[in-house]
Amino acid sequence: MRKTIICIDRDGTLIHDTRDHLFLGRNNDWKSKVKLLPFVVDGIKLMNAIPYSSIYMITNQPGVAINDYPLLTVDRAREVCRYVFDIIKSKGAVINDFFLCPHADFEYIKTKPNAAFNKNLVHENCGCLKPSLGMVFNALKTDGTMPENADLYVIGDRSSDVQTALNINGTGILIPFKNEPGEEEKLTKLENQADMHISSTLLEAAKFIHSRVKTSA
Ligand SMILES: [Mg+2]
Ligand SMILES: [Zn+2]
After folding, report:
1. Phi, psi of 11 (to 5 degrees)
2. Strand order in the sheet with 171-174
3. Are the C-beta atoms of residues 183 and 159 closer than 8 Å to each other?
4. Could you tell me if 57 and 5 are in contact, meaning their C-beta atoms sit under 8 angstroms apart?
5. Distance 90 CA to ligand 1 centre (A)
6. pLDDT at 18 over 90
7. Nearest bound ligand to CA 59?
8. Does residue 179 carry a pLDDT above 80?
9. Phi, psi of 148 (to 5 degrees)
C-alpha cells in the first residue's frame, strides 16, 4: 500500500506570517496573533479524505536561536505549534504530528546583523533546517513509512519548502505569501528544473494532490 505523505509549512502557509507576527511566541500575547489563512481547514479536510494519507507540519524556527527573544525557547516554539495544531483539530481537520527546527545557519545569521545568537543553536548543517530533510524523515519515521513507499509532497510559501520536496524526489507545492528579498530568483531557478506546482490556497493544493492520486491509482 502506497502512502501519501504531505508535509506543510507553518508560517505563511497555515497561519499568517506578517512582519508584526514574526517570531511568534517571543511575546506573551502570541496566541492573539495566530490567524489561520483562508481555506486551510477545508484544504486539510480534503487531504484527510485521500486514502492512506498523513499530514505533518514542519517548520523552521530560527528565531529560537536569537538571544534577544528570551521567551522564544524551543518549548515555547513547540507550544505555538501545538496551539496551531489544536485550532485546526478543533475545526475537524487532522494533522498527524509536527516537527520544528530551532537552528539558525550562517545564511540566516547574515540576514540579521543586529541580532545576538545562541551559539548552541547555530549550525551550518543541523540536518533539520529546510531544505534539509530531517523533519521529513521524522515524519516518515513517525508514520512508519519507508520513503520508497510514499508519495511525498511539501507545501509552503518559500523556495526552501519546494526545495525540501525536490531533495527527496517529492513534489513541491508553492503557495506564495510574502516574498523575501532573493526569493523570486530562487523560485525561477526551481521552476526551470522542478516538480513544482503553484497553488493560491491550501484547498487548491489539496485538489491538485487529489488529482494526482486519482491518476496514479
Ligand atoms: Mg513559511
Ligand atoms: Zn535544525
Report:
1. -75, 125
2. 97-101, 53-60, 3-8, 150-156, 171-174, 196-198
3. yes
4. no
5. 22
6. no
7. 1
8. no
9. -70, -15
Above 80 in pLDDT, residue 143? yes
> The pTM is what?
0.95
Ligand number nearest to the C-alpha of 138: 2
Measure 217 CA to ligand 1 centroid, in angstroms. 31
Q: Give the total residue count for the chain.
A: 217
* Helices and strands, counts by H and E, the chain: 7, 6
On average, the pLDDT of the chain sits at: 93
Give residue 119 CA to ligand 2 midpoint distance, Å: 13
Is 3-216 in CATH node 3.40.640.10? no
Count CB atoms within 10 A of the CB of residue 79.
14
- What ligand is nearest to the CA atom of residue 104? 2
User: 198 CA distance to ligand 1 centroid (A)?
Assistant: 14
Of all ligands present, the nearest one to the C-alpha of 127 is: 2
70 CA → ligand 2 middle, Å: 19
pLDDT at 187: 87
**182 Cβ contact list (under 8 Å, min separation 6):** none
User: Phi, psi at residue 7, to the nearest 5°?
Assistant: -105, 130
What digits encode the pLDDT tens for the residues 158-172?
Answer: 999 999 999 999 999
